[in-house]
Amino acid sequence: MSDAILRGKAWVFGDDVDTDLIYHNKYLAETDPKKMAQYSFEYYPGKEHFAKEVKPGDFVVAGRNFGTGSSREHAVYCLKEIGVPVVLAENYARIYYRNAINNGYPVLFVNGMSDAIKAGKIQDGDELEVDLAAGRIKNVTKGTEFHGDAVTDLEKDIMGAGGLIEYLKAQAAKK
Amino acid sequence: MGKTMIQKIMQRASGKEVQIGDRVWCNVDLSTARDFGGPNCVLQFEEVTDKQGKVWDPKKIAFTFDLQAPAHSEKVSNNQKIIREFSRKQGIDKVFDINWGIGQHVLLENGHVKPGDVILGTDSHMNLLGAVGAFATGVGNTDIVASWILGTLWFRVPETMKITATGKFAKGVYMRDLLTHLVGTLGADGMFFKAVEFYGDTVENSTLADRITLCSMVTEMSGKVGLIMPSGPVLDWLAARAGDEVRQRVKDLAADADAPYCQEVSVDVSKLEPLASCPDAPDNVKKVREVAGEKIQQVHIGSCSNGRFEDITAAFEVLQAGGFQVSPEVRTIITPSTREVMKQCAEAGYIQKFLEAGVVFTNPTCSLCTAEHYGALPSGDVAISTTNRNFIGKVGKGSHTYLMSPASAMASAVRGVITDPRDILG
Q: Is pTM, for the whole model, over 0.95?
């Protein structure tokens, strides 16, 4: 895990963001992860322009149950490929969570994020500084701070290897 | 302390004692993929194994084609071919091509699902197979590929909620309404990461179709799997399809009397009325009567939630009571879940009557859940569907959908506006 501080703008979403809003079923037939980036959030009301305007390094910030719905791994690939380095949500729906871990894609569990979004304490365009290793999230624009928990248990080992397939290869190499 | 069903299932699958919160590697009984997700799995597996890889056990892998069956886009058509060629190369026989229907239902009918089985699929509603006591789950392509290599997969041992339903449904009220009631009261994360066990005389006396319905929106409450141990006629049906071994599985894997539940919920279904998940979320629940009168442009009856013979029968009965004619202002589409269900509808004389009434009766597919198959909605349309998700634009940008029971959906198709089925059934 890098010691660098990540800097970027916040893109803020609500609770229960469903996978059709992250990556619509229209594009399920796509098999190349690099081609999935362009469809990110195309169906999210008010954020249809996300894929065109997001800069690599910008953050996706969300409330509870992010990624609820479909098992489509496309919904993780598209954010990874478009350059969002980590998702900062209160928590994640279980299949989305699995798909992120299996791809070594960082997610932090940010206590209080759902309420903070509702209270306007973090908004679109806010400048954020994220210390991934420490789990520290600073909203530079608003002068507030959050703490995010990284994953633990087996998921931590899988993330550490870079994803599930990499983890399995490392385990096989040990034998 | 006793063990819950999911604990017993994971113990059997992992060969070790499991505590809630543990991570375990479970032997996979069946690893499946659809024509959506499936090609992604094949391409990833070939890449990861330098095209040299052999799957761990071709007899424990299945593919079902149901996103576009038949394919109407070249891209999906090529994806289906990728799966066919991979299956031939690997010796995978269980390829249910475009003439079968919705994956979970096809696998169930063909005897590939037993209580306690660990089953994977590239669809988040795989877990409705919990209706016969299987631990089935939707996963992404990486999890599938890992299972093709190892034959096992990692899981967290979840807490379990217990839900007890008692009483008989009033006329015009169905299992789907109980399901909608649960989604409305528990909310979009009401079952967060949990397994659920369903009990009570309502469940005990219910058909397989109803049990499937009840288990089909655990995903929409962010749950892991809804489990019902098969019993009575459902167990007999399952034994006839999957073998008598299922009877021993039921004995071995039923929850202990002192199993620990993190939450217990009880519902007296006799008090329920027809309900709707209103635009734009499954947990935005109101009584159908409350939203009655709104004009709709399309009604689609089917899906893995409510596409079986009993579901279509309920719709047929409302159509019959309503004079065997749907409103000319409403596009009414019925999609059976499988070829077997479609045959049952034909044998019962339904299809003739549906066609005469102005209904479009299609072959079995997952169609009604995507914007890429028949029934896609234009911007501004309001539709009713018996599927399990209604987020804005799901079946077409700018469209809105109400989710209801087949009876409520058909009542609305008959009148041309959202209609409580009790107003037609009497």
A: yes
